[in-house]
Amino acid sequence: MELAHGLLLNEEVCSQLSEHQKAEFVFEWLRFLKKLLIAADRADLKEKQKKLVEQLTALLNSSPGPPTRRLIAKNLGVLYSIGDTSLCVPNCG
């Protein structure tokens, strides 16, 4: 699960996993991301924010279960509170 410990979801590894393993991998990444966002360098975060928002939105649109949706929502909230808030407006409309 060390591959799940990055600011961005490792889509290459994720695509090679079975559905069950993929769900576990994504959940583990979301749990780690929650901690990582708070400690991340703001410049690095702003650089990767657009891709990260795309990944989180795609995960949300894939109809995950309630625990995963909750983590996605918390991560988006933290991301917009410490990152670039101007990216929030197009996604809210």
Observed structural traits:
93 residues; mainly alpha; globular; Laa1/Sip1/HEATR5
What does this structure look like?
- One of its GO terms (cellular component) is cytosol.
- The model has no long low-confidence stretch (mean pLDDT 87).
- The chain has 5 helices and no strands.
- With 93 residues, the chain is an all-alpha fold.
- The protein has one domain (2-92).
- It has helices at residues 11-15, 19-39, 42-61, 66-82, 88-92.
- Helix 3 runs antiparallel to helix 4.
**Helix vs. strand class:** mainly alpha
Figure out the total of helices. Answer: 5
Order of helices and strands: HHHHH
Gyration radius (Cα, Å) is: 13 Å
Largest sheet: none
Distance between the termini: 35 Å
Question: What count of domains describes the coordinates?
Answer: 1
Q: State the total count of DSSP E strands.
A: 0
Give the percentage of residues in beta strands.
under 5%
Which whole number gives the mean pLDDT? Answer: 87
Shape: globular
Low-confidence stretches: none
User: Percent helix among the residues?
Assistant: over 70%
Describe the secondary structure blueprint for this structure.
Layout (H helix, E strand, L loop, with lengths): L10 H5 L3 H21 L2 H20 L4 H17 L5 H5 L1
